[in-house]
From TrEMBL:
Any one of the GO CC terms: cytoplasm
Name the record gives this protein: Selenocysteine-specific translation elongation factor
InterPro entries (UniProt xref): Beta-barrel_SelB, EF-Tu_GTPase, P-loop_NTPase, SelB_WHD4, T_Tr_GTP-bd_dom, Transl_B-barrel_sf, Transl_elong_EF1A/Init_IF2_C, Transl_elong_SelB
The keyword Protein biosynthesis belongs to this UniProt entry's keyword annotation: yes
Domain Tr-type G: 6-178
Entry GO MF terms: adenylylsulfate kinase activity; GTP binding; GTPase activity; RNA binding; translation elongation factor activity
Swiss-Prot/TrEMBL keywords: Cytoplasm, Elongation factor, GTP-binding, Nucleotide-binding, Protein biosynthesis
Subcellular localization(s) per the UniProt record: Cytoplasm
Region of interest: Disordered: 621-641
Pfam families recorded: Beta-barrel_SelB, GTP_EFTU, WHD_3rd_SelB
Entry-linked NCBIfam families: selB
Naturally occurring in which organism (per UniProt): Phenylobacterium parvum
GO BP term, example: selenocysteine incorporation
CDD domains: selB_III
Length: 641
């Protein structure tokens, strides 16, 4: 049983204008990449060209980049879809301006594998080749092609073509696999209409394989589409493999509704974003240091955007230096973690450097958290999952989001979950925490609750929502919930109707003798008031709150009058006995009859009866009620007033 064939190799063909790139690709593949009339009339590529060679050892997609500086965007587009480079240098002219710039940009875009084709070799004498090769090696000594194979060749005579074929096969075997992504990511470099297919888009497919019938979304427009047909190398296929070129016919969108530079994505995975954090390498030939606030042009995939730079931890980056930065895009763009990009100065145009996306949905940078953010991004750059988890825990009050850790580590959620489970404790679905953070959260909860009791010693309970909100400045919601549940189960805290208290908190123990005396007087007044109690606003609020929290007084709402009335619990208990005596079950009574029996007013009787209903002492059926409590369950009826 044979394994799956290797993924297609995107090969960026780069070099100076008129050095023979297109002629060499034609000789290697038999295909013409200059398809536009203007290209044919000028004899010069002005757009990214495409050709392919199918091979059992792995298909090759040639991405023929224009060599003229005016079309640098198309060259970057080619390197963005490639995993290796074929640098083309004329044996007659040697290294030229765009040869150097293309080589530099390919390195800044993350390419680290390739070979060198010295074209037009038939135009130089054989004895000149060793000296020419030595000069070319000196030009490339600081680049990723310093030790790459170098082949003298000619598209006219065919010299060196077999050696190039062999070198390209070797590249396909050596190239690292395409970056794994959680979904389809297809930057669209061409959009056109085709009879029988409708709207067709093409691009270098990244991430997951794309299948005919798949649902997708165009970002950043957000238009939902369906892939009705797929073609690879001119043939209709059921699915296209990541790493290679693909043409997709889309259902649900017209050609004029799609712009080159948009991305066909798996829905919900790559939303357009306006802030990204990147690792940045400034070109040694950058015209000046890069500073926070500088405006840059960002070239990535098949698009370009304008952004402002905010350096993270550096005042400025000198040419050749490396650092971390946040890009604030002028308009949201679809981005994925690990994506390579090129930074250019808008005017006068010049290459500044290259970068790699560390966090495609970066939070806004703040001075007080800048150093912590720098540490998290450094761990992300190093691929250090433990460091990423520690950084997230420090930022998010002890909690580690599985989804965010997987995104930053650029690993699958299942893989990251298995790794985190070895060293962290699962709090909830998709949330972990270090063991030390759990102990700290438990203690912080108790300490903050003790502080709250200290500020309001006469309150038996603290409002739970306000307490959680205050605690959330230090702890994540997941850790707060974990600590609360553990403390409640252990009997260390009491939770009651949206309020919380330490189990050992006794507000009565904090009262002075004078306060105890006043408290007894208040309780006596309400006990004596029976079902016609006094106005609660006439008494000290903190002592009233204490009696209400203790359960000796009960606050009831008269909704019709929009008033809160307070009764002594004994009075409500005694009312049940009086109603039982006056209306022995199964005798029913009306509200007015109950009011008369208990010698009170409608203002008080309505909330009192509703309370007895809620407690199950009485049962309401329409306009009448019955007593359901057993006889003599409560004390004697209150004395009528």
């Amino acid at each position: 049983m044979t394994g799956a064939p290797p993924p297609p190799l995107g090969l960026a063909v780069i070099g100076h204008v008129n050095h023979g790139k297109t002629a060499l690709v034609r000789a290697l593949t038999g295909m013409e990449t200059d398809r536009l009339p203007e290209e044919k009339s000028r004899g010069m590529s002005i757009a990214l060209g495409f050709a392919f060679r199918e091979d059992p050892a792995g298909d090759i997609d040639f991405l023929d980049a224009p060599g003229h500086e005016d079309f640098l965007r198309a060259m970057v587009m080619g390197t963005a879809g490639a995993r290796a480079a074929l640098l083309v240098v004329s044996a007659v002219e040697g290294f030229a301006r765009q040869t150097r710039e293309h080589l530099q940009i390919a390195g800044l875009m993350g390419l680290n594998l390739g070979l060198v084709a010295v074209t037009k070799a038939d135009l130089v004498p054989p004895d000149a080749r060793p000296g020419l090769e030595a000069r070319l090696r000196r030009e490339m000594e600081d680049s990723f092609l310093a030790s790459a194979p170098l082949v003298f060749c000619s598209a006219v005579t065919g010299e060196g073509l077999e050696a190039l074929h062999g070198g390209i096969r070797a590249l396909a075997a050596q190239a690292p696999p395409p970056d794994p992504l959680p979904g389809v990511f297809l930057p669209m470099d061409r959009v056109f209409s085709l009879a029988g297919a409708g709207t067709v888009v093409t691009g270098s497919l990244q991430g997951a394989d794309l299948g005919a019938g798949d649902e997708g979304v165009l970002e950043p427009s957000g238009r939902r589409v369906q892939v009705r047909q797929l073609q690879v190398h001119g043939r209709q296929v059921a699915s296209a493999r990541a790493g290679g070129r693909a043409a997709a016919a889309l259902r649900g969108v017209a050609p004029d509704e799609v712009r080159p530079g948009e991305v066909l994505c798996t829905p919900g995975i790559f939303p357009a974003t306006a802030r990204i954090d990147i690792a940045l390498t400034l070109s040694p030939e950058a015209p000046r240091p890069l500073r926070s606030g500088d405006e840059v042009r960002v070239l990535w995939g098949a698009r370009q955007d304008i952004a402002r730079v905010r350096l993270i931890g550096d005042a400025a980056l000198a040419p050749g230096a490396e650092g971390l930065a946040q890009l604030r895009l002028a308009a949201p763009a679809p981005v994925h973690a690990g994506q390579r990009l090129l930074l250019r100065r808008p005017s006068p145009a010049a290459t500044l450097g290259g970068g790699r996306v560390l966090d495609p949905v970066a939070p806004e940078l703040r001075a007080r958290t800048l150093e912590a953010r720098r540490g998290l991004l450094a761990a992300t750059l190093a691929g250090d999952l433990d460091g990423i988890a520690a950084g997230l825990a420090g930022r998010d009050g002890g909690a580690v989001s599985l989804a965010e850790a997987a995104r930053l580590a650029r690993r699958s959620p299942a893989e990251v979950e298995a790794a985190l489970s070895l060293s962290l404790i699962r709090l909830d679905e998709g949330v972990f925490a270090p063991e030390a953070a759990l102990a700290a959260a438990r203690q912080a909860y108790l300490d903050r609750l003790a502080e709250a009791h200290g500020r309001q010693p006469l309150q038996a309970f603290i409002p739970l929502a306000a307490f959680r909100n205050g605690l959330s400045r230090a702890l994540s919601p997941a850790l707060i919930a974990w600590a609360e549940n553990r403390l409640a189960d252990a009997g260390e805290i009491r939770l009651e109707r949206g309020r919380i208290a330490l189990a050992g908190h006794d507000p009565f123990a904090t009262l002075s003798a004078d306060q105890l005396s006043r408290l007894a007087g208040i309780e006596s007044d309400f006990r004596a008031g029976g079902l016609s109690p006094p106005d609660p606003s006439a008494f000290e609020a903190d002592l009233m709150e204490l009696l209400l929290a203790s359960g000796r007084l009960v606050a009831l709402r008269n909704h019709a009058l929009r008033q809160t009335l307070v009764f002594h619990l004994n009075a409500l208990d005694a009312a049940v006995g009086a109603l039982h005596a006056a209306f022995p079950p199964p005798m029913a009574f009306t509200t007015g009859e109950a009011r008369a029996a208990l010698s009170t007013s409608r203002k008080f009787i309505v909330p009192a009866l509703e309370f007895l209903d809620s407690r199950g002492d009485t049962a309401r059926r329409g306009d009448v009620r019955q007593v359901t409590a057993p006889r003599n369950r409560f004390g004697p009826a209150p004395v009528p007033h």
